[in-house]
Amino acid sequence: MGTDNWKGHVNGILYGIQFDRALDDSVVTRVADGVVGGLYPGDRAETLDALDQALRYSGPLNDQAETPHSEESIRAFLAQLSTALNARTPS
């Protein structure tokens, strides 16, 4: 998956959390449910690949889909989301 592709997945996720005050477990669950339920582009495997690439990326993740969350908070949230998606059985 190229940079544009994984960034598109991540930007979609960031867009979906931009109004959440805290990136807590309920937000992780809501986004994971949305990924599995088809509310985000791509399937679970594509999203996991995008999250893996995003977490390895050294540049900013909040540069296109701005949120009030810090880079550190976003990275922690994406890591939690990856863990949550990995724990789910693929359909």
Residue ranges: pLDDT <50 for 5 or more in a row? none
Radius of gyration from the alpha-carbon trace, in angstroms: 12 Å
Structural class: mainly alpha
> What is the β-strand count?
0
What is the count of distinct domains? 1
What is the overall number of helices?
Answer: 4
* N-to-C SSE string, H for helix and E for strand: HHHH
Write down the overall geometry.
Answer: globular
Share in β-strands: under 5%
The largest pleated sheet is described as:
none
Instruction: Give the distance, in angstroms, between the N- and C-terminal Cα atoms.
Output: 21 Å
Mean pLDDT metric: 91
**Percentage of residues assigned to helices:** 55-70%
Characteristics:
91 residues, mainly alpha, 4 helices
Brief synopsis:
The protein is mainly alpha-helical and 91 residues long. The chain has helices spanning 3-17, 25-36, 44-56, 71-87.
Topology:
Layout: H1 3-17, H2 25-36, H3 44-56, H4 71-87
Question: What does this entry look like structurally?
Answer:
The model has no long low-confidence stretch (mean pLDDT 91). The longest helix is centred in the last third of the chain and has 17 residues. α3 packs antiparallel against α4. By secondary structure, the protein is mainly α. The radius of gyration is 12 Å and the shape is globular. It has one domain.
